[in-house]
Amino acid sequence: MRTRSPALADDDAAIARALEMLRSLGAIREDSRAASALEALARRVDPAYVGKAQRLARAAQLVNSSLDLDAVLHVGLALAVDVMHAERGFVVLGEGRQVAALHGIADESERANLASPAHAVVDDVLERGEAVFATDAQTEAPWNANGEIAALHLRSIACVPLRVREETTGVLYLDSRERAGLFTSGDREMLLAFAQQTALAIDNARMFDEERERLRRISGMQLFQSRILEAIANGVITLSPDREITTFNRAAETTFGIPSERMVGRPAVAIGNVIPEFPELLDLFFDSGAVQLRAEVEAERADGTPLTLEIRLSPLHSSDGTGAAMVVTDVTEQRKLELAHAAELAKSERIAETFSHYLAPHVVRSLMDDPNSIKLGGERTRATMLFADVRGFTSLAAQLPAERVVHILNTYFEAAVGVVFAYDGLLDKFYGDGVMAVFGPPRVRPDDAARAVEAAIKLHERVAQLAPKLDYPLEISVGLATGDVVAGHFGSAQRMDYTVIGDAVNLASGLQNAAPPGAIYCDEETFAAAGGQISHPMQKIAARIKGRGDLVTVHAILPS
User: Fold this and answer.
1) 490 vs 291, which has greater pLDDT?
2) What is the mean pLDDT of the chain?
3) I need a surface site. Which of 20, 198, 274, 496 has the fewest CB within 10 A?
4) How many helices (H) and strands (E) does the chain have?
């Protein structure tokens, strides 16, 4: 440690006493030039001043040696307070007059009352960008009129701007309640210089903090993106503008059976080893202006397992140009399930079509939808019954070979069933050479009777059209009756039929038997429900129906 000799120490003390005596002379204090000259001399020879300047210079070096903003603020302020022998010190930053650092507040009771500088002084310096030095704020205008300064009993005040690039970013504030004239003109120059260095150090530390925060956010975002990529169930592969693989996430590893380290950094064409179409699709993507592209491709895992993939290419813009992001969805199992489902549907349709030759369509649909829905029992409803029979079938069977008779009947039944279905009727059964159909159950509609009449008329027309084809003159008669019936499944648990039971069934059968060849007999109920929609000639007659004692009123329709 360096020490000064006793002789030099005595010289310093003598110089200090001489300067103090000169400062006390009224003539020098009143002569500004003399006072300025004395201060200039003091700066060169006054050991206290020289020591203060050296300490502030070292403090400035210390402040500028750190990039920790909090350390710069508090260390710099503490050194300034100590060197200048101030009681309190504050660093106030311009944004919202924020007290960023304070020094010299000893305990909590003082902190409550003295934890802020003289706002009037601070605002003045921040607004004008010029330093304020008050030798005795209690007696100097405008400060002696300020209630805040009087309440704080402030005497000496030094407030210098912190300036960076011609902008005042804050102030360095020092004060004392005990001593007036604490800050000399030489102190002012030193404080201004120190504040300039401190402002630069604060600005550098702040920029360092901002850059560190920016890097932290970038790093956090990169980590966040990386975690998102790893959490995504779909494969994600990104390509740089020069078509190099930059990302190959975990789902992509699983899909292709290839670790990411074998793919990242390689040219994009390497993906062609597992997706043969990829190089061509990538060229198409960029040639089209990097417009989003979607395709389903066949691929292969590293172990040779075939894959079906859906890929979506999207542009990935950066400062270096446009790359690409590819999302890979493995739809192999989905496509297998879809094919199996389509095959099952086709099988079900074939079964339904086959059963429809034996069962009513609605029964087949119910059975296919819910095999357990078919149960014995019925419900009362309204229906129009249609019976149609080939006239002269007994003689037909006696005159022709059996095979010829079967062919004629099947041709007729094919036409009859087509007509019934065309008018939304339900084919109940074939009986010998006859057909029984129901219009209504299981879905009753207001026009059931009208559709039954139209079906009967159409059936006569179709039979007339069959005659040339069969080379045999077929004729039929039709009976129609409307009324309440019980519709449902009848039989046993092992064998059941969907049919209807009721008087309308018997009446329709009787009307068919009574009708002459080429005629349609319908009862009063059917006529009342559909009469207004029948355009063919009609005749009202009384007919004797088997099983009924009285004559029955019948409406006869004679299709041309």
Assistant:
1) 291
2) 79
3) 20
4) 18, 18
User: How far lies 307's CA from each of 63, 344, 526, in Å?
Assistant: 65, 23, 64
- Its CATH architecture, for the domain 375-557, is 2-Layer Sandwich (3.30)
Band (453; pLDDT cuts 50, 70, 90) = very high
Q: Are strands 520-522 and 552-557 parallel, antiparallel or unpaired?
A: antiparallel
Amino acid of residue 395: S
CATH code, residues 68-208: 3.30.450.40
As to burial, measured by CB atoms within 10 angstroms (0-12 exposed, 13-18 middle, 19+ buried), residue 176 is buried
Q: 332 or 205: whose pLDDT is higher?
A: 332
| Statement: the pTM of the whole predicted model exceeds 0.70 | no
Reference 199, options 231, 165, 225; nearest CA is: 165
Tell me the C-alpha distance between 389 and 460, whole Å.
Answer: 11
Which strand (E) or helix (H) includes residue 74?
helix 69-84
Structure tokens of 222?
């990169």
The position carrying tokens 């990169």 is: 222
Strands 496-501 and 156-164: unpaired
Is residue 438 within 8 A of residue 465, CB to CB? The reply is: no
Neighbouring C-alpha atoms within 13 Å toward the C-beta of 338? 6
Residue listed under structure tokens 């014995």: 376
Residue extents of the structural domains in the chain: 68-208, 232-330, 375-557
pLDDT in tens, 419-447: 998 898 888 888 888 899 999 887 888 98
Cβ–Cβ < 8 Å for 159, 152: no
Structure tokens at 157: 């005040």
DSSP 276-298: TTHHHHHHHHHHTTS--EEEEEE
Structure tokens belonging to residue 356: 């429809």
- Evaluate whether 64 touches 76 at the Cβ level (below 8 Å): no
DSSP state of 267: B
Six token digits for residue 499: 């049919």
Phi, psi of 361 (to 5 degrees): -55, -45
End-to-end CA distance of the chain: 139
- Tokens 């006239």: give the residue: 391
Comparing 219-228, 234-243, 272-281, which segment has the lowest mean pLDDT?
219-228
Which long-range contacts link 318-324 to residues 24+ away (Cβ below 8 Å)? 318/241, 320/240, 320/241, 321/241, 321/242, 322/241, 322/286, 322/290, 323/238, 323/239, 323/240, 323/241, 323/243, 323/246, 324/238, 324/239, 324/268, 324/282, 324/285, 324/286, 324/290
Measured distance CA(555)–CA(496) in Å, rounded: 35
Round to whole Å and give the CA distance between 342 and 118.
85
Instruction: Count other C-beta atoms under 10 Å from residue 467's C-beta.
Output: 12
CB atoms within 10 A of CB 466: 16
The structural architecture, per CATH, of the domain 232-330 is 2-Layer Sandwich (3.30)
With DSSP H G I counted as helix, E B as strand and the rest as coil, what are the percentages for the chain, rounded to 5? 50, 25, 25
The DSSP string of 218-252 is HHHHHHHHHHHHHH-SSEEEEE-TTSBEEEE-HHH
For β-strands 377-390 and 476-491, DSSP reports them as antiparallel
Assess whether the region 232-330 and the region 375-557 belong to the same CATH fold.
Answer: no
Structure tokens, 162: 């912190």
Distance in angstroms (rounded) separating the CA atoms of residues 401 and 394: 13
